[in-house]
Give the backbone structure.
Amino acid sequence: MARQFNKGLRFEKFKEKEIPIFDKLFDIFKELLTYTSGDFDEAFEWLKQLDVEYSLTTPEYTLDDFLEDLKNKGYIKEELEDGTGSSKNKITSKTEQALRQNALNQIFGKLKKRGAGNHKTKAIGSGDEHTGEFRNFHFGDSLDRISMTESIKNAQINNGIGNFSLTEQDLIVQETNFNAQMSTVLMIDISHSMILYGEDRITPAKKVAMALTELIRTRYPKDTMDILVFGNDAWMISVKDLPYLKVGPYHTNTVAGLQLALDILRRKRNTNKQIFMITDGKPSCLRMADGTYYKNSNGLDKHIVEKCYNMAAQARKLHIPITTFMIASDPYLMQFIEHFTKANQGKAFYTGLKGLGEMIFEDYEQNRKRRIR
């Protein structure tokens, strides 16, 4: 009789998984598109320069082949230029989503996947997330929350097996957590100072916005997120606008941004509401009642600053906390943010560009776990 032996482990030399050239080029190209604010021609020109320097392509697969694959896969399309009759390559909505997903992987890639994708609170309530705890049935409890196994076990203990009966006193209910919903407004400063001093601050802010948006859309679909930008004025932008976001020749009208954010959140029915503000500069602009602008870039203007404090206090009365991510380290600006945060009873982070995404995610998660009242 032949014996069967278990096979042992077989060790082989590690072989790195072969990544198609298209995927390698596309990863680089997505990064370039983010830096060029969605300008296909500029990004492709940068890719050509990188190819010359680092030999990214091969004789069998050239940049012309990559361009053809981008078209065939639906990542770019040709559009006619107004008045010229010539065509120009532009990215599609499929590429815009790929850019958001790329930002999500870069910033939140180390996060572990979770199941249901809702924000838990510490409050017990009518939700769909089981806590593992049980209690006696109370009048008004939903029947689908009754644990039949625990209830039958209880009935056997109370009434015996021989004379089995199940009464209301035997019923056991499984506890669930109330799943919080959150409405968030993300404010992004696009004043000229976001690209001053040779430092690109708008691209990291843009990446964070794309990553956070994609995170909410995929993991927390019941939440809402609105994005606005503020310079001399403030206006809302859509998700598809994010890759194309650029800094303008603007001052910083923080008051206009806060006013628009509060207007948005007043229309939301969710109890939990919050504002995230990414900025690097001091408030330096106000729009007056007659439509003119009051501007002062020299230090902190008392009139403008007081308006900011008033908006912070107004948000506090509406139970809307403001979390400020300050990409600056000037002592007098930090002092302004401290007073602003105190007026709102919110939070402030004084941060460089590195780690900005992780900070915003952690704060977003923490706020999801509590009810903001």
Summary: The two ends are 76 Å apart (CA to CA). DSSP finds ten helices and twelve strands in the chain. The first strand starts at residue 76 and ends at 80.
